Amino acid sequence: MAPSLSPRVKELIAKARIVSFDGWQEQFGDAAIAALQTADDDRIYLDDAVLERLPAGTIARSLRDHASTMVDTARAQVLEQFTGITEPGGGLYPAFRAEACWRDFWHFLRCITYGIAAQRTDYTSATGLAYMEQLYQELQVPLDAMVYGLQALKTASQRQLAQLDVAYGEAQLDPYFDHLIQALSEFQPAS
Asked: CATH number, domain at 156?
């Protein structure tokens, strides 16, 4: 059973919205931005109708449709690299902490697909990321494992697209993943 969250943690969760569509209106128009914002508000992947209107919607659809597989792959790699992380004394113990980590991987991939679909690496909010950093500090999230997992998620995504024979080179995925990997790499651990 997960413990109840403190008011501070609940506040940070609400504010840790890492996606921003500021500056996208001119390129995509109000209707597309509203659809993107609704998906982010609902914390869901973009649906086919929205993806059809975006430059790289096919790539984002492929990632969306295989998100669970890619998150499972990243999780397995984190567990292999950070042995004992889910055991007593580990950074992802007890089980609810590990589940939150895997859920964050799913959401990171969701956010990255927004950027990929629109071919915009500026899909993050500096303010939202600052709140996420505070949240991670408050919860003492193992940042090294999260960054490693995000890198593993990037590799799994590249492999997934290659297996599906989707014509999108791995170098073209790099900027979207690297943008978020760099941001998380700069988070400071809890003091």
From this structure: 1.10.490.20
